[in-house]
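Re-running the complex after MR caught last week's input typo. The corrected sequence lines follow. Everything else is unchanged.
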Amino acid sequence: MERAGSLLRYCTTRLGLAPVMLWLIATLVFLLLRVAPGDPVDAVLGSRAPAAAKAAMRARLGLDQSLLDQYLDYLRGLVQGDLGQGLINQEPVNSIISRTLPASLELSIVALIVAAVVGLSIGFSGIARPEGKLDLAGRLYGLGTYALPPFWVAMLVQLLFAVSLGWLPVGGRFPPSLMPPQGSGFYLFDSLVALDWTSLRGTIRHLVLPAGTLAILLSGTFTTALRLNLRRTLRGDYVEAARSRGLSETQVVLRHGLPNALLPVLTIAGITVASLIGGALLIEVTFSWPGIALRLQEAINQRDYPVVQGIVVVIAALVVLVSVAVDLLAAALDPRIRY
Amino acid sequence: MASIGVGLLSLAQLGCQPISANKGRITVASAGKISSLDPAQASTVNTIQLLSALGDPLYSLDQRGELIPKLAAAPPIVSPDGLTVTIPLRRDVLFHDGTRFDAEAMAFSLRRFLEIGTLSYVVGGRISSVDVAAVDRLVLRLSRPSTSLEGLLTSVNLTPVSPTAYSQYRDGFLHNSFVGTGPYQLSDFNEHQQRLEPFEGYWGEPPANKGLDLITLSNSTALYGALRSGEVDVLLSPSIDEDQRHALHEKAQQGQLREAIGPATEIGYITLLSNVAPLNDARLRQALALSLNRQEISERVSYGLRRPLRSLVPPSLPGTHGSSWPAHDPKSARALLNDAGFCAGEPLRIPLTFRSNVPADKLLALTWQAQVKRDLKSCLVLELDGVESTTIYRQLGEGSFKAVMLDWRGSYPDPEAYLTPLLSCSSSRGDVCLEGEAAISGSFWTTKGLQKTLTRSDLLQGPERHRELQRLEEMTAAGAAYIPVWLEAPRAWSQPSLERPRFDGSGHLILSQLRTLP
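Corrected-run output:
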């Protein structure tokens, strides 16, 4: 009962802090964009546009107001869930995000699943003989993939599998000759729901290289995390006690070692998926993946304030939400965690 | 190892069954997303290229540079005083929404452009009113006679749009749709992909293919790879790195690809800030111009695919001579620098800014820096500074860059479209331009009589105009606030299964003539 009460307090505190963090991030982004060189009106109209046209647009966009008024307008919209309109093509930012976020989420989730399966398998495989060949290979794999420059790996994979072998598409999210499946924006899901096998195959073909590359790069983290945690766990007193009770090594590892070693890995997975949403830029650029990170980069280049602000706030919200969820899950699963 | 092997086999299995495309459709790839389809706002090469397939201008240029009526029925009729231009229009043209194209529709589009066009400097205050004389007769009243007007009328920015479809957008942009008169109509649009279907009601020759899928890929390697792997049928050259451009050119020479080369209309040049020290001293600007070995740069950077350029106007345009700027002459450069007091002690240090996101610019900057180090050691030092292009364009008019590398492609094929955006000046003090295009372009340079010569050149015709243009170039070369470097021609490559692509005289790939070989 006391534990449930503490958990509730912990949840309330974490969730209560989330809006404060979001407000801080939103304010920081607002201010940073205003001090960055470049005029958004020039971005829309071009630097050679007549001064009168520039002034009219500045007024229409509210850029002629004081910084404080602009900030208050921005916060008001944010609270109402209105992220504004892009400056360049007046598309609502909500619509831009709803189009690009599923692409990034689909890529991140698939990459994370593959990374977890590959990384954990390799991390687990060396545990039978610590310091043996498999364990050493796992250690090298963990370090190697962690150290590889993402851009370089992506280019290499692209050149090998798409250009030289021609097995898979070079980039993009869907075959250009087909119409993408309609629905949630998650093409895998939408193709399955529509039982559209051509779309499904097209989606998978385009997903393999970017998701595979991302998975390779991430899997080393899982390998290293599991390997280290499992070794530490297997040296614990309670594991020794289990061994002394006559349990086989497999039973010891599966029943006592693995569940405890996986808890920190859960935290890593959560943080990874959250950071991937905005952090897969190099992969999105290399594979022309029309995700939110690529759109953010384009908006920064165009000084499209509302789009940059909207995307950063949404990414920050997701990062905050996922990390809170992971913390709460870990707290609920692990009785040793104090709050 | 076994699992990796199985994975690779599965990959091969998955890849060996490519998604079948609709037969007869052609996939065209290029770099750079399309943010807006509104011709009043279009400025990027990609957007202009797309609009050239979705709409028709009044006139176009053929490959010899001759004016060909498109939506116009005949060449423009200019009044003796040069102030009234009458354009006869075709009567058999439909917009994609089924409404009829006529003089009212053309007037609507021109007035709309004059009202909201972000490239209104293209028109430059020349058109004072647009009148409808008859259903098939449009009259333009000019504020001054303008020889370059014919070239202007070929501009894709003046492509007519349907007044019905744009009735809500008379004074605002319509970004994600386009209703024009071209051989294709838009069936699906997003920033990275556009689907075009042949327009059945098209007045001219119908497209030679069953539709187009235009895609944008975000980097040069992806574009190169997509063509090499057969994933796309046609690749357009903007944003292809020099190495890959050269490799594609070589493949085309070997018959593995087909290559088309358009008219060379894009100039690469360096702007020097002429209104503050040290480059307010014309001798130093001239020394910089003399220190540049264009031939070597062309060969080192672009394998000779970009041609050395010694004028601000592409030599293919009428009335240009092509070599007003001095050739590479390090001895004369040294003499000028010595004269200005820089070779004896401290060398002249010039920060050279290049667009960090344009690989060719960086290579050019490195090569020029090495040339200067080799030829003018102890006299001149170039200090390189890479800045992202958006920041450069925004800060150019603030005089932030002593020397900066840029490129320019005129909105229409006339010398005026190159000279006015760099030289025009509405207010000056001595040799410093305070307001006008020369200030916006970052040189802040003008000289006595330059603006008058520029205005006069647009009033004259034939050899007289050519002489005036030549004078303009010579004055600008002497001022040396701009250093032309190279000239680039648009290129396109297609798979051998397609006919060789073709460009029109304005440098647009003729998408409607892309065709799969039988």
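None of the earlier attempt is carried over here. Residues 234 and 253 of chain A are 7 Å apart (CA to CA). Chain A touches chain B through 54 residues (CB under 8 Å).
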